[in-house]
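ok so for the tutorial part 2 we go from a plain amino acid sequence to predicted structure tokens. step 1 is just haveing the sequence, like this:
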Amino acid sequence: MKISLNMFRASVVACVALLANAAFAAPTSSLTIDFNEVGSDVVATVAGSFDISSLIPQSSGTMTMRNFVSPNDGLAGFSDSGSPVAWVSWRIDEQAAYTQPFWGDGSNAGNVPRFATSTTGSGSFYLEGNPLSSPETSEARIRFPAAYAGEAMNGTMTWAGQTYASMGLATSGTWNWQTANGGTVALRINAVPEPTGCVGMAFAAVALGVWIRRRAPKA
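step 2 — the prediction. this is what the tokens look like for a chain of 219 residues:
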């Protein structure tokens, strides 16, 4: 009985090890940057992580990462630090043929960097979605601090008193990239909901109120 119990325990340990290896054999990651018009502001929400394991570094340097978007140039950044940091860039391949003005609307408003007026959260990156700045067609780059090891990045960037149009952003769209180890990066601009439905409901409510008042018995 003792031998059987030991064999059972060994089998359980072996199964757990196999499951763990299967779960971590092909690590993936997903980083998203979602833009929305919220009230009178534009807000970008950053969420996810980036798995650098098995990837080959492309270049390195030092820079101060900023919270910004430069729409027509295909650039965007997020940072929880205002100090210069050493960085390493990694290759990301676009999933479609992206060309200028990228996530901009092509207007002069989209030709300049737009720096966020406030931010929350943690993490830093610099997205070079413009393939023209990379050595190969359809190749883009994303920079992370040299000390980055796959930690989660979460937070928001707010451009107070702005709209997509005033910032030179496209009205909607999704731009996707993929890494050699199966990771993904996505930048999305979500369309502003049409107010027609709300206006129609409000008009119907007013009309119903008028009809009820007219049918109410007079004193």
